[in-house]
Amino acid sequence: MLHPPDEWLARHRHDHGFAAVVLAGGYVEAGDTGRHRVEAGDVILHRPFESHLDRIDGRGAQVLVLPLPEGLAATARGRCADPDLLARLAPDDPVEAALALAEAFVVAAATDEDWPDLLARRLLADPDLAIAEWAHGMGLHPGSVARGFQQQFGVTAARFRATARAHRALEALADPGRDLVRIAADCGFADQAHMTRSILALTGLTPGKLRRARSGIAPDPASL
């Protein structure tokens, strides 16, 4: 995918997981796993049903989209030493390119540049975090935090928190032995009905339907 300089892509959702390998240029992505500033060699991994916005920088960006490599879904960002190899493999066999990515993938350490990054990381670690209390602890006005976070991520901090909780429940659904009532309690929902509404809003499917359909989800050839 080729993106022109200074392109802005509004927040959007992908129903299937994929890996975005930056071949040239750079951009900032702000989504359900935080805010990522990437350039050539960087890789962002997207789980199913993630949303994000993208701000392409003045260089433009060339991005290779691959199926999400198995076993890497729990990681958000990493590096690949030879992205050109993946670009050569992908036209003939994108699955082989994804396997090559998995072998060469190195997890990248997260970097916090300002308070929206810090808040996003805290919310991902603790979806029950009280946002107003966090703001006061940082010496920030809660109203300024609400406006500033939405400006950077395209959603409020409260919505980001709710989405983080829903994604946590989605991951738990992968274990067919876990009871839905227990998953709801473990993930901080008021009850199973609350969890069902949240997952339905995020995915368009109920937890039960997701469990039945999960094994049939195919890789998404979509772009950024």
What topology does this entry show?
Elements: E1 2-3, E2 8-14, E3 18-31, E4 34-39, E5 42-46, E6 50-67, E7 77-79, H1 83-89, H2 94-104, E8 106-107, H3 115-125, H4 131-137, H5 142-153, H6 157-173, H7 180-186, H8 192-203, H9 207-213
Antiparallel strand pairs: 1-6, 2-6, 3-4, 3-5, 3-6, 5-7, 7-8
Helix pairs in contact: 1-2, 3-6, 6-8
Question: Features of this protein?
Answer:
224 residues, Jelly Rolls, Arc Repressor Mutant, subunit A, 2 domains, eight-stranded antiparallel β-sheet, 9 helices
Description:
The longest helix has 17 residues. The N and C termini lie close together (8 Å). Strands 1, 2, 3, 4, 5, 6, 7 and 8 form an eight-stranded antiparallel beta sheet that branches. The chain is globular, with a radius of gyration of 18 Å. Helices cover 41% and strands 25% of the residues. The protein has two domains: 106 residues, Jelly Rolls (Sandwich); 101 residues, Homeodomain-like (Arc Repressor Mutant, subunit A). The chain is of the alpha+beta class and 224 residues long. Helix 6 packs across helix 8. Strand 3 and strand 4 form a beta hairpin.
Task: Describe what is shown at a glance.
The protein has 224 residues and is an alpha+beta fold. 41% of the residues lie in helices and 25% in strands.
CATH topology of the largest domain: Jelly Rolls
What is the CATH-assigned architecture of the largest domain? Sandwich
The main pleated sheet reads as: 8 strands, antiparallel
What structural category characterises the helix and strand content? alpha+beta
User: How confident overall, as mean pLDDT?
Assistant: 90
SSE topology string: EEEEEEEHHEHHHHHHH
Which percent band covers the strand fraction? 25-35%
